């Protein structure tokens, strides 16, 4: 089954907003095994709209339209859809009442314009919009269903999930469902992952394994097709188990479980606290940890120790170490991790010190060099890497690596150098 | 002049990524007065690609294509463009060398696959890609230029700005040019800005003033059309002067000059140093300041003091203040700013302490409450606000406000409460 998504609005074509509706709709269609073949966007121009709609009717099995359902003169979708496929516009009484009630609920009076939003092409089925004034509708043209939805993302999301997807599923009874999962990994490059997992999910033609880079992470997206959701889930359970067995601690979470969320949950569950000492990451690691609500349960604090004097005064790094080895060195990284742990009285202390660039490098200590250390009751582990990345990505990768060390320590996994990185020998 | 943008890739049609390239390209085209009329996306499928390309050739005056220039079997754009318009593929020696050199620069060997990226349709002009392996190209079909660019956003952005836009401008000599500027403001809501500036840029029909929200900032985008770039620039100078006169210190920068960049430049120019003490922003303010290369010239460091014990031990906040007023209070904000200034020996000390939520609020101290303080040789200024925002936006707005106070102090502007915020009385 092939779908086309048509989004309408001058603001899209002027580039004023990024059109995230299309990716959302495509992803949702895929869960019903409907493949999006075309994304088309046109201005609020009747001729361009009609052309796009006719073309969609000729090449797709299902068409999703978003935008152009508002109350203003620019909003032409309903009118143009009706005209294109030879339907009259008729008013829907219950929709008019619902729009009036919506305005009453927010303490405003309905403007005369809004009555237009209760007009639909003859024969269309109205799709209610409980959180906005623009109802959607389903118009079947020949064999092709056109689902017209508002362009406001939160209204579109709700209408898609509650109204559109069930109707598409119902039209396709017996065809089966597709379910997907997201496994989050850190520490191995995409092509290596592809290679390591190449024999996974090959025996079942209804299971596929997708890859997606979300620097500095890589996501795995297993997708299973089956007659029922339960059967698809069972296939996914099997393939996810196989991936986790193969990758071990490289998989840190599933779905929306970010590394900071997973690590925070581990700290809370184990009743442990953490403090961070940052040089090159400059606050990014602390910011990441505290982006999680409730982080005060386990995060005691951090020091962004940029100046050497701050490393001495706030972290107790001996001046002699700074003078002999320089700020970017293993002895200083160790002293920072141990110092922040002692100053804050935390169970774990983690540190970063490096040269994120673009300036500041030398032959001996190139731009990209970074030392990371993790101190706890068992001692201090330190290592160094060279990441040939721009400043922002260097900082992002370093902070994620340091956080991943914390997670690995908490789950008892080794703090090895992930293959995503070029280790400096 | 009408443009069509064609983006290519299965990942787009599966909804795995949001296609931000289209909005970027449309926005940039608009600066040359080129109106995007169609956005089209298709899978890595030769028939669908050919159909989209032929259609674009028939209805657009300029076509931008992105994606499908990679080294793998799925990357078909060059091949399909050549076949669609009856061109042979020819190898470009300099491009092959450039790709080889690119791999050498990152310490890797070129895979045989990558040689494919040095093939181009006969007659195409190669567009170099200094930060990736996929060069782009310009192929003129009849009267219609097709610009083919890589799909990786940072490579696309650079190629569009450095290679494509100048060529489009050159093809349009004599038609007139459109120039745009971006003025960055912080502290006033979009609708208030619109109201305050409503009489600006009304007398000249060739000047328009656009608004764009980029939370927590608001951008102004004056756009001027004229026969020459110099004439358009002169119009822009006039409108920008008028805006700056009206808004004063609300305008903090122009173009790519972020608040952290502007504030950093002021600190460097005045030979001043800064240190930050963060509670609710948890490292975000330090991270923002240090995201600028060379921040070590003026940033001594920061303390993310989440736990009260950290506020005492690392910032010298008296326990008595914490017990009597609570961590989220003006006396504690003042003590944090003064403490971090003293500990780091910096010229300025700035602090944040608040309740970013979603939990932690009370009747007296609601979620959203935040205290900010700025200490320098002249004394300490403190104020408090309630921002009814989610955790992430609460932190972002607080960090930006604190940084803007630093900038205002350095330029001698008052530290008033911007109207974007609901002040708590």
Structure description:
Two copies of one chain form a homodimer. With 425 residues, chain A is of the alpha/beta class. Helix content of chain A is 38%, strand content 25%. In chain A, helix 2 packs parallel to helix 6 (153-171), helix 9 (259-269) packs parallel to helix 14 and helix 10 packs across helix 14. Chain A has helices spanning 10-13, 21-30, 46-59, 77-84, 93-105, 153-171, 190-196, 229-247, 259-269, 284-290, 308-315, 319-325, 330-344, 391-411; strands at 2-8, 35-42, 62-66, 89-91, 119-121, 125-127, 136-141, 144-149, 177-180, 183-186, 207-214, 217-226, 251-254, 274-278, 299-305, 348-354, 369-376, 379-386, 422-423. The model of chain A has no long low-confidence stretch (mean pLDDT 91). In chain A, strand 17 and strand 18 form a beta hairpin. The two termini of chain A are 53 Å apart. In chain A, the strands form four sheets. In chain A, strands 2-1-3-8-7-6 form a six-stranded mixed beta sheet, with helices on both faces. In chain A, strands 15-14-16-17-18-19 form a six-stranded mixed beta sheet, sandwiched between helices. In chain A, strands 9, 10, 11, 12 and 13 form a five-stranded antiparallel beta sheet that branches. Chains A and B meet through helix 2, strand 2, strand 14, helix 10 and strand 15 of A and helix 1, helix 2, strand 2, strand 14 and helix 10 of B. Strand 15 of chain A pairs antiparallel with strand 15 (299-305) of chain B, so a sheet runs across the interface.
């Amino acid at each position: 089954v092939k779908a086309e998504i048509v989004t309408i609005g001058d603001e899209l074509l002027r580039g004023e907003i990024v059109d995230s509706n299309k990716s959302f709709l495509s992803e949702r269609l895929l869960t019903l095994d409907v493949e999006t073949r075309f994304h088309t966007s046109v201005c609020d121009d009747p001729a361009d709209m009609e052309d796009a709609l006719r073309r969609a009717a000729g090449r797709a099995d299902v068409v999703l339209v978003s935008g152009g359902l508002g109350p203003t003169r620019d909003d032409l979708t309903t009118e143009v859809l009706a005209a294109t496929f030879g339907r009259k516009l008729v008013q829907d009484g219950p929709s008019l009442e619902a729009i009036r009630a919506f305005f009453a609920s927010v303490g405003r009076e309905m403007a005369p314009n809004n009555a237009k939003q209760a007009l639909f092409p003859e024969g269309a089925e109205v799709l209610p919009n409980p959180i906005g004034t623009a109802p959607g509708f389903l118009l079947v043209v020949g064999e092709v269903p056109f689902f017209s939805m508002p362009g406001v993302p939160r209204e579109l999301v709700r209408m898609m999930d509650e109204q559109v997807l069930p109707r598409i599923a119902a039209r396709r009874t017996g065809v089966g469902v597709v379910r997907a999962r997201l496994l989050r990994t850190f520490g191995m490059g995409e092509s290596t992952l592809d290679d390591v997992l190449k024999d996974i999910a090959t025996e079942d033609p209804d299971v596929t394994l997708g890859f997606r880079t979300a620097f500095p992470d890589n996501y795995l997206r297993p997708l299973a097709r089956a007659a029922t959701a339960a059967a698809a889930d069972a296939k996914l359970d099997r393939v996810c188990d196989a991936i986790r067995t193969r990758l071990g601690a490289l998989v840190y979470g599933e779905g929306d479980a970010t590394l900071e969320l997973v690590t925070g949950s581990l700290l809370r569950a184990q009743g442990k606290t953490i403090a961070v000492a940052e040089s090159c990451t400059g606050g990014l690691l602390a910011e990441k940890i505290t982006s999680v609500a409730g982080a005060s349960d386990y995060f005691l604090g951090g020091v962004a120790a940029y100046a050497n004097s701050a490393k001495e005064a706030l972290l107790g790094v001996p001046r002699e170490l700074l003078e002999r080895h320089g700020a970017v060195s293993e002895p200083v990284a160790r002293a920072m991790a141990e110092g922040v742990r002692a100053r804050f009285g935390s169970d774990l202390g983690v540190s970063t010190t490096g040269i994120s660039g673009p300036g500041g490098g030398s032959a001996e200590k190139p731009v990209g060099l970074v030392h990371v250390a993790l101190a706890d009751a068992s001692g201090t582990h330190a290592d160094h890497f060279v990441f040939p990345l721009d400043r922002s990505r260097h900082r992002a990768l370093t902070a994620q690596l340091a956080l991943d060390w914390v997670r690995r320590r908490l789950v008892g996994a080794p703090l090895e150098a992930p293959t995503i990185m070029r280790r400096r020998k």
